[in-house]
Request: fold
Amino acid sequence: MDASRSYEVLIGRGLLAGLGQEVRRVCKAEKVAIVSDSNVWPLYGEAVKASLGRAGLEVVRFVFPAGEESKNGTVFLGLVDFLAREQMTRSDCLVALGGGVVGDLTGFASATYLRGIACVQVPTTLLAAVDSSVGGKTAIDLPAGKNLCGAFCQPRLVVCDLDTLDTLPEDIFRDGCAEVIKYGILYDEGLFRHLEEHRLRFDREAVVARCVELKRDVVMEDEFDTGARMKLNLGHTVGHGVEAQSRFTVSHGKAVAIGMAIVARTAAGRGICQPEVRDRIVGILERFGLPVGTAFGTDALYRSALSDKKRSGGRVDLIVPERIGSCKILPTPVGELRTFIEEGL
Ligand code: NAD
Ligand code: GLY
Reply:
């Protein structure tokens, strides 16, 4: 990955055992803080700790309750205060061991603690492997909305051990599938077809590697999200509305699936894409067991979508499919967003 900092993304099986050596290779740390959540630490914490210990690194850990509710200012301040009490220095390193919540929170601490400390991302969900661990977006949620406080900060290395995905509950694996399907709709019909044919039994290594490659290309073109990278928000504006309305009981992946289905229906209705494109998008989401509709009404979704951070003044940039493998940015006056949602519900 080549952005403001270049780094490798290692993808394979059995990688946790060699994590210590990899951390040594990418930074000069003497001490490492593993940050993880209450589900992931019991599964992989000791293995990661042992690997870091074998590489001669001093290890401390910060484990917080699993779930989106923890991606907040209180846990964040608890984490940076812990790092200060442990006297972690600028040359030391954080290891984010977990899904997108752990990755975003640790990444934000890496951007801010001592104005910057190295971070190695070790994603353990499909969503984190294909999306959040790569590209340097870090954030915490505020009471006013999701991801409203954050920074761009690239990690030193991403180590994606596919073995960790074996313990994921199927429902959480499906959440990651929504993001994988998103890459197919945006950029790659071949990937989309592979998913249509193999469903949940897709080739994990090849698909994760392809998604990371696609994300690398877009982040290299537009690291700070002012142009091409915005396309990664396919389904997200309406999706954030669903997440907010459900008070985050609908997961990010499922909300994005609903958002992509709504956008596809409106796009087909307006002649932006053929009806066949809409049917393939809605069809693949259904085959992956993802939702394609919501009981929340137009007004509620519209209100929540308006508070999304992708809004820019009186305009919101919606991402709409033209073909499978190609989408365009549709600048939409805020006043028209309501109709756009209504047409796709
Ligand atoms: P998550 O981190 O909450 O993980 C989902 C659940 O799976 C948690 O309960 C977790 O404890 C558990 N888990 C994780 N790995 C496991 C494993 N290997 N085995 C068993 N259980 C495991 O959620 P997520 O879906 O990984 O990430 C969602 C978050 O990512 C959201 O906060 C979203 O905003 C963020 N996100 C960020 C970016 C970015 O670019 N930074 C992109 C997409 C999403
Ligand atoms: N997940 C969206 C992005 O990285 O831009």
In short: The chain has a mean pLDDT of 95. Residues 170-187 form the longest helix (18 residues).
